[in-house]
Structure formats: structure tokens, C-alpha cells
Amino acid sequence: MSPYIYLRALKHAEHTVFCVEDGQKTYFDSQFNRILAYSSGQQVKRSVLQALTDYMNVPLAPITFNYNISANNELENKEPWSPCDPTYVDQLLGGWMRAKTTSVKSDKKESEQSKENSVLKRRSPLSISAMRPLHPLLAGVEKENITFDRSDRPDYHPVNVRIKGTEKLLTEEEIEEFLNKNNRSLSRRTWIPDNKRTTGLFIYDIAIDLRTLFCVSTNQHEPEVTKETIASLKEKGWIESENVFGKCLVLPKEEREKIIPALADALIDWRITSNQARTFSLMETLAVAISDNANTIASAIRAKLIDDGDKPKAKPIVDENAGAELYVTLPCASYILTETESVLALDNAKKSLIDKMMAFDYEHQI
Asked: Other CB atoms closer than 10 Å to residue 325's CB: what's the count?
């Protein structure tokens, strides 16, 4: 049995924003000479973990934000700290990196334990791609001008006018005098030009490494967790075992059975949860391909370039004969010619993921 599960999903986005950076994150496709929108793998990962914790009704792990105060009383932002605790489900599945930072240098020899625990890192068992267009010709970026408008109640929304370079506010009489002298007016409307929006067919890929999905290494040469955490996990019923990477602790079966359905749901039903206040899109899932072979999911959901004279076109394809399990939803028929769409497509895709994750023998890998 392959220790990997590969998933590709196809989504439709409608006039929306994935992440606000000059209106929308974009990159340039040099082959087709087009600017394209994308959502970074980090944003997709955060959205998946948010969906997971929402499903389980548990909080995300608390992150400690560190600052130093300099000699002239300025705050210096330092690296945030993860708890590096796999009892938090987002830490277990999302991984962590924590380097020991000290603000004061000391000539005293550090303790052996301090040296051992100077860096803690766990690679996430989920490898997640950016969400990007299925094909450069099947998505686009458009611009629009929008306004922040409160001109309907000018008497209710105050206006402040300052003399540049100072904190002095003009009085109402001074404002009126300035406007009359200079033939000007003050608006309760702010123009926000050139806002980017995207529309099209988008895909993301996820690889699940079952070998480390619920296993935490106990190796202290390159530690994932401290010795104290290892002792605490053992007290909580984590099982001592071994995988191809060495000795490890495995999450108990009853806990895995709580997480697996939530993870299957989150991998398919996540939505972008940040920076999307201005323009909402359902970003409905059109198709899901699942396999233990990465090449087959790429073949199952793909696009084909069509020579149409001076202007090439791309045709989206969902192919149930490409070697992967393919689940096609009802909305997919709006964009791709298909006869296999089903109202139960996403439920069946989640069941397939659950069955595959449940079937793996986490305790007896070697």
C-alpha cells in the first residue's frame, strides 16, 4: 500500500479576491503572456486548518508573539513561537518551527537541555500547493473602481482637516472659510481605483504522507518535541512505535477516528477565510480526483490546448478513465461537458479519503 494520498480539486471562482495585495495576488505566465491570480499554499493550508478546527469545534493552537525593546524604547518584532504541541490538531497536521531566541547574550555555558531544545521543527504531513488556474486561458484578472461612500448622511459623518505636518485640527469655521476662498468642497466619498478581481477555474493539489500523519518523532538529535512533551504524550496514551524515519509516538486510535472525518471534510470543503470581505464567492468545488499516484490526478483534472487560428483556446477536461478516482459535482456541468456528475460526489470523495486514512496501520509501519 502506498503511504501517500494525492488529491486534486477543481473550484470555480466568480469575480472575487483570494488575498489582498494591490487588490489581488497575481503572477505572470510567460508562455501565454497573461497576469493570473492565485492563492498561496500557505493561505490554502491556513484555510484547511481553520475548516478542520471549526468542524471539530476546537481552537487553533495559541501562538506567542515576541518583541524586544531597544535602548531607545522602540519595539522590535521577533519570531512568533508555536507551542510545538501535537495535542493541538492544527499543530499535529500543520507542523511547526520554533527557534530559541534570547535577547541577552551570556558567557555562561548553556545547559545540555537548552542546547537540545534550541530548535524544534516538525514537517507537516500535508504538502499543499497554491490554488492557481487550471490553465492560463481559463482564468483572468479584471480591474474595477470602487468607492467607500457615506455621502448620504453628510451631517452624521464628521470630516477632520489638519494642517499638513501638524496635529492641529481646523475648526468648522476655519474649514468653511477655506472652502469658500478656494471654491472647494469636502466629500464623504473615497475612490479606490484599480481593484483587481479574478474569475475562472482553479485547482489545488494536496499530498498526505500517512507515515507521519499521526506520528511524532522522538529523535532528540533533530527534535520535533522536547523530552518533557514526550513524557506528557506517553501519559496521555500515545503509543510507542517506529516508522521509516525512526522511533516515534502514535496518536491513539480513538483520537485518530475523531480527526480523520474532520480532515477529509476540511481538505475538500475549506474556503478562504481572510481578506475577502469586499467580494464574496462560493468558490464551489466542481470535481475531486484522489489517487496514490500523483500523475493520475493530474490527468484526471486537466485542460487541453486547442488551436483556433490566431487565438488558441483551452478546454477543461475531467476524465474518469485517467486512473484516479474522480468525483464530479452538479455545478461542474455548467462549465465542462460531463455525464457523470452526482449530487453525492463530495460525500463520496470524503468517504474515500476517510477509508484510505482509516486503513493505514499507523502503529505497525515496520
From this structure: 18
Has residue 351 got a pLDDT over 70? yes
- E strands along 228-366, which residues? 239-243, 246-250, 285-291, 301-306, 313-318, 325-328
Per-domain residue ranges of the chain: 4-60+124-143+195-217+238-359, 152-186
Grid cell, residue 246, equals 525512526
Where does 90-154 show beta strands of DSSP type E?
Answer: 96-99, 119-122, 126-128, 132-133, 139-149
If one counts every other C-beta atom within 10 angstroms of the C-beta of residue 134, the result is 24
**Helix-strand-coil split of the chain, %, nearest 5:** 25, 30, 40
Sign of torsion, CA 128 133 136 141? negative
Sequence-ordered strand ranges (E) for 65-131: 67-69, 75-77, 96-99, 119-122, 126-128
Q: Up-side HSE of residue 199: CA atoms within 13 Å toward CB?
A: 6
Return d(Cα 179, Cα 189) in angstroms, integer: 17
Residue 249, exposed/middle/buried by CB under 10 A (0-12, 13-18, 19+)? buried
261-284 pLDDT, tens digit per residue, is 999 999 999 988 655 445 778 899
Beta carbons within 8 Å of 336's beta carbon, 6+ residues apart: 286, 287, 316, 317, 318
Cα distances from 82 to residues 31, 102, 212, in angstroms, run 40, 16, 19
Q: Rounded to 5 degrees, what angle do the CA atoms 283, 4, 260 make?
A: 60
DSSP state letter for 105: -
Query: CA 49, 52, 56: angle at the middle one, nearest 5?
Result: 140
**CA atoms of 104 and 91, how far apart (whole Å):** 29
Q: Which helix (H) or strand (E) holds 215?
A: strand 215-217
Task: Name the amino acid, one letter, at 195.
Answer: N
Q: Looking at residue 244, what is its pLDDT?
A: 95
Tell me the per-residue pLDDT of 93-111, one tens digit each, with 9 for 90 and over: 999 998 765 444 444 444 4
Pairwise CA distance, residues 203 & 194, whole Å: 26
